[in-house]
Structure formats: C-alpha cells, structure tokens
C-alpha cells in the first residue's frame, strides 16, 4: 500500500462522539485512526506520512488514515 504525504491543519470535529481530523492543504479531509496526542491541538499545522485505512467508519467524514510519521510545521 502506498504512503500518502499530507500537509494540513488539525481540527477537532464535533460530530457524534467527536474526533480529531486533518484538513489537508489539498482540500481533502483526513481522519486519523491513531491521532498522536502531540497533534491534538486545534489549528496546528502538520505534515504527516500516512497509509489509507480500508473499511467503513461511523464518522463518515474524510478519508480514514493511519499516521506512520509526523512533524509540526511553523505557522
């Protein structure tokens, strides 16, 4: 499975029980199934390497991903 390189902004989504997501600079929404605690900061600019996760999600928001590596970016 190929890896995705994503740059974007972290946002908390208040849908259902709530979750953290990444709004990509590419206009796509990404929901990490393993969002690191270090990234759970609203409006944090991040770059992540991730793999797409297959399957359904109850959240129905964005593409489900598993973060492989990450770092924060300066604003």
- The helix/strand order is EEEEE
Q: What is the CA-atom radius of gyration, in angstroms?
A: 11 Å
Largest sheet: 5 strands, mixed, barrel
Provide the spatial order of strands within the biggest beta sheet: 1-2-3-5-4
Indicate the low-confidence ranges by residue numbers: none
Tertiary shape: globular
Q: What is the end-to-end distance?
A: 31 Å
Which class best fits the helix and strand makeup? mainly beta
CATH architecture: Beta Barrel
The fourth-level CATH homologous superfamily is: NigD-like N-terminal OB domain
**Which fold name corresponds to the CATH topology?**
OB fold (Dihydrolipoamide Acetyltransferase, E2P)
Mean pLDDT metric: 91
Number of domains: 1
Question: Could you walk me through the main structural features you see in this protein, from its secondary elements to its overall organization?
Answer:
This protein is an all-beta fold and 75 residues long. It has one domain: OB fold (Dihydrolipoamide Acetyltransferase, E2P). It contains no helices and five strands. Strands 1-2-3-5-4 form a five-stranded mixed barrel. A hairpin with a 5-residue loop joins strand 1 and strand 2. The radius of gyration is 11 Å and the shape is globular. The termini are far apart.
List keywords for this structure.
single chain, 75 residues, mainly beta, OB fold (Dihydrolipoamide Acetyltransferase, E2P), 5-stranded mixed β-barrel, 0% helix
Q: TL;DR of this structure?
A:
It is built from no helices and five strands. The chain has strands spanning 3-13, 19-24, 29-32, 45-52, 63-72.
What topology does this entry show?
Elements: E1 3-13, E2 19-24, E3 29-32, E4 45-52, E5 63-72
Parallel strand pairs: 3-5
Antiparallel strand pairs: 1-2, 1-4, 2-3, 4-5
């Amino acid at each position: 499975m190929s890896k995705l390189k994503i740059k974007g902004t972290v946002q908390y989504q208040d849908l259902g029980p709530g979750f953290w997501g990444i709004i990509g600079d590419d206009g796509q929404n990404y929901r990490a199934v393993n969002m690191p605690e270090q990234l759970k900061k609203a409006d944090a600019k991040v770059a992540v390497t991730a793999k797409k996760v297959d399957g359904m999600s109850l959240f129905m928001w964005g593409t489900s991903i598993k973060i492989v590596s990450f770092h924060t970016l300066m604003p």
